[in-house]
Amino acid sequence: MPNKAKHPAPDFETVLQQHRGIIFKVARLYTRNEADFEDLVQDISIQIWQSLGNYKPAYALSTWLYRIALNVSIDRLRREERRQRHQEVFEALPHTGQPGQPSGRSEQLYRWVQALPPLERALMLLYLEDYPHGEIGEMLGISKSNVGTKISRLKQRLKKELK
Amino acid sequence: METNDWKALWKSHQAQLDQNTRLNLMTARQMQQQAARRPLRALWAARIAETLVWVLLLAGLSTCIATFQGHTAPQISAVVLSLFAVVGISGSAGQLILLGMLQFDGPVVEVQVGLERLRKHRLAITQLLMSSVPFYLAHVFFWFQLLFGIDLFASGDPQWLLAQMVLSAALLPFTFWLIREMGKPMPRFAWIVGLRRSIAGERVEQAVRGVAELEDFSTR
After folding, report:
1. A37 and A98 Cβ atoms separated by less than 8 Å
2. C-alpha dihedral sign at A140, A141, A142, A145
3. Residue A34 belongs to domain spanning
4. CA-CA-CA-CA torsion for A62, A64, A65, A68, nearest 10 degrees?
5. Which end of chain B is more exposed for a tag (fewer CB within 10 A), N or C?
6. Which of A134, A98, A127 has its CA nearest to residue A113?
7. H helices of chain B, where?
8. Residue A93 lies in a domain
């Protein structure tokens, strides 16, 4: 279960250092090469820097960061790759975009998630990161029951496609 | 494999990827230098330019309204065209307000719908310009007065004028039906999609479908 402790807005560098994992995780999932990954990390960091003044301690910092990271990444992807469809991407992906990465079953799972359409990808990422349905719904802006339905469909597909 | 196995597999994979990631994040000072790379910068620039164009147009038309004293038809035409310019200004100003209100830390679907709506704004401009088609006589009267100093309504053949008015009236329902269809994600006829794509551009076409996809995601 992710750490849900609520914090007041800390300074930019502390946020980046303590939560770099979230930024890297999201940026990696929405890019397919090192250069794009670095670019996206930079874009997300800029957006975090620009949004820091809006941070409300009512949200867990991680939830807030996921929203920014996902919004920046999905927007970028929708602009650049909106024509690509799941199957095309899934078949074409040569690797997950990072050097020296692990391989095997986990690699298959990663590639499968990475090939999903942008919003389903976000949903699956948050689900695999163990966020409860209610919180996933809050991050994405959809109802808890809708999250449950979509996750159930995605799990069925996952089972079928990664037997 | 069960759900927990997938989750465990995912976590171990992420841990390994994290170990392989060697990337230094920027400091606050570097961020200040990079702040010009705002993701919505192009949209801001386009909307500000667009608002300025509409304001200049309205200023020009207002001057003409004042100068066309004694020529009723060209003056009324300038008023009609000014109304379109006012709608244009409010549309562009509204877009600037939307841009200012858009926060990337909002719920993902909401933010993405907002972004796609901003991107399909050119469609609203297209629809506005198209809605002026039945009022083409206003353009004709206005430009004849402005360029040649001729009040076409006062000096034109009454039968020709009547025919033009009938044509204008006939164009009215068709134009409004077309504008309505063009605003739909899936218009009834393929040629309307083609027309929309050719006038507003592929990006607008994608944004229209993008909004529909996002709304579909949040409800199904």
Report:
1. yes
2. positive
3. 12-161
4. 160
5. C
6. A127
7. 3-20, 28-34, 41-67, 72-101, 108-119, 121-131, 136-143, 152-155, 158-182, 190-200, 202-219
8. yes
Does position A20 have pLDDT exceeding 70, yes or no? yes
Which candidate, A54, A76, A73, places its Cα nearest to that of A64? A54
Q: What angle do CA B31, B114, A55 make, to 5 degrees?
A: 45
Dihedrals φ, ψ of B131, to 5°? Answer: -70, -10
CB atoms within 10 A of CB B149: 9
The answer, for B36 touching chain A at a CB cutoff of 8 Å, is no
Q: Give pLDDT tens digits for A106-133.
A: 888 999 999 999 999 999 999 999 999 9
pTM: 0.79
Residue bearing the bigger pLDDT, B180 or A6: B180
Alpha carbons B71 and A31: distance in angstroms, whole number: 63
Report ipTM (2 d.p.): 0.80
Select from B87, B100, B89 the least CA-distant residue to B50. Answer: B89
Query: Cβ B108–A158 below 8 Å, yes or no?
Result: no
DSSP B187: -
B27 contacts A109? CB cut-off 8 A? no
In sequence order, the 6+-apart residues with CB closer than 8 A to the CB of B119 are: B43, B203, B204, B207, B210
Closest CA to A41 of A68, A23, A61, A64: A23
CB A74 within 8 A of CB A126: no
Contact criterion met (CB < 8 Å) for B206 and A82: yes
Instruction: Using CA coordinates, name the residue in chain A closest to B33.
Output: A46
Asked if B69 has any chain A CB less than 8 Å from its own CB, the reply is no
Q: Tell whether A148 is covered by a domain.
A: yes
Residue B37 forms contact with A (CB below 8 Å): yes
Alpha carbons B109 and A116: distance in angstroms, whole number: 16
How many domains are there within chain A? 1
- Whichever domain contains A31, its CATH number is 1.20.140
